[in-house]
Every structure is written in structure tokens, then in C-alpha cells.
Amino acid sequence: MADRPAADDDRRHFERMFAERGYSCVAGVDEVGRGPLAGPVVACAVILPVDFDGSGITDSKLLSPAQRIAMYPRIAGSCLAWTIGAVDAAEIDRLNILRASFLAMRKAIEDLPLTPDAIIVDGNHKIPDITIPQMPVIKGDQKSVSVACASILAKEVRDRIMEEFDGKYPDYGFATHKGYATEAHLAALEKHGPSPIHRRTFRKVRNQEQQQLDF
Q1: Residue pair 197/169 in contact by the 8 Å Cβ criterion
Q2: Are strands 81-87 and 118-122 parallel, antiparallel or unpaired?
Q3: Are 159 and 60 in contact (CB under 8 A)?
Q4: 6 secondary structure, DSSP code
Q5: What is the torsional sign of CA 131, 134, 138, 141?
Q6: What's the CATH fold of domain 10-166?
Q7: Separation in Å, CA 48 to CA 28, 76, 121
Q8: What is the dihedral sign for C-alpha 59, 65, 67, 73?
Q9: pLDDT tens string for the chain (215 positions)?
Q10: First to last CA, the chain
Q11: How far is the C-alpha of 139 from the C-alpha of 160, rounded, in Å?
């Protein structure tokens, strides 16, 4: 059975738990774009008001593009604060994707105009080099409304970045697949070789680049 969004009250459990401990400003943090062969990894940090209406809000992967587009202004306009952190393909190649994801999340947190006193982060790892108390939550984007909002905003921002790259590198179809390893993307990669925004340490990109050099 597919995962279903939890009830809104259930998805405030971690926020309430922090509030009961005296943490009044809680940020939800998530990232998108670990898997693609091209483009940045993008993270978002979100601080919601206590009366935020979380109905329909869930993991961005469980929403259609139309639903995410509709929710974007609703979330962005209701947040007490939200910020984006992005790490480009060259830095991903230099650091590796896990460390780059942590860096994107740290950038988002550090750029918040409000300093959170606690963080709920999607996944099973705390963000390194952050002194603010953190709670990693596996499938946090389905279990925490704050993390779900961060997931949706991060996804929408990254999609828009990839659509802009499509205009700069039109041979690859970035506006359609957003850099993920679809058949069309792999065919374009085979035909044209990697673009400047491809992640050259990723195996499928590295293999195509090597074939281009061998040819």
C-alpha cells in the first residue's frame, strides 16, 4: 500500500514535543536533488506559525506538479521565515553528494532571518556543524508539517532552477526531467556528452564523458 499523508494533528507531533520543552521557534529542514545527474542540490528551512493550516501538505514526492505549484504561494506567504540553500554540481563533485546536501541544509538554516531554537530534519542524520538542537526524523517530510513545507518549497525552487538551465542548455530536456536519469536524459547525454551542470562524479555521467573522450 502506498504511503498516505498523516492527519494534520499527527504531523505536528514533533513541533509540539519541542514546544513542550520550551523551544518556541522550530524550523523544518529538507533537501531535494540528491539523485539527479545534473543541477544543484537544494535545501529549504521553514519556520511556521502555530496556526498554520497544514491540510493537504505532505512530502513533495507524493504531490503532483500542479499541487506543488498551488501550494508554493500558500506556504511561502504563511511562513514566519523560510530560506533556500543550494550547492551546485561542481561543489557536489568536490564534496560528494551527502556532504553537499548537508552544506545546502546548513546554508538554509544559517540564512534564516529568525534563528530557530530547534530543528526537525528529514532523514536519519543530524546536520554537521550546527549547534542548534536537532531531531532527525526518517520520512520527516511525511511526519512533520514543517519538514513537508520545506520539501515542497525546495522542490519548487529546484524545478524552476532546472527550467532556467533548460534555456541555457536546450539539448538535454532539463525542463522536463529536471536532471533525473530518464531515458530521454540518458539519450541526450550519450549524444551530446555532459553539460557544465552535469555531476561528473556520478557514474552514468562519468561513463558518458569517458566514452566521449575515447571516441
Answers
A1: yes
A2: unpaired
A3: no
A4: P
A5: negative
A6: Nucleotidyltransferase; domain 5 (3.30.420)
A7: 8, 10, 14
A8: positive
A9: 344 445 556 788 899 999 899 998 999 999 999 999 999 999 999 999 989 999 999 999 999 999 999 999 999 999 999 999 999 999 999 999 999 999 999 999 999 999 999 999 999 999 999 999 999 999 999 999 999 999 999 999 999 999 999 999 999 999 999 999 999 999 999 999 999 999 999 999 998 766 554 44
A10: 47
A11: 24
Partner residues linked to 82 by β-bridges: 46
Cβ–Cβ < 8 Å for 91, 113:
no
What are the CA-CA distances from residue 2 to residues 5, 60, 61, 67, 133 (Å)?
10, 14, 12, 18, 32
Q: 59, 142 in Cβ contact below 8 A?
A: yes
If residue 150 lies in a helix (H) or strand (E), which one and from where to where?
helix 145-168
Q: Where are the domains of the chain?
A: 10-166, 171-214
A 10 A CB-CB count for 182 gives 14
State which amino acid sits at residue 7. Answer: A
Q: Structure pTM?
A: 0.92
Angle at 133 between CA 132 and CA 136, to 5 degrees: 120
Sole residue written with cell 550519450 = 190
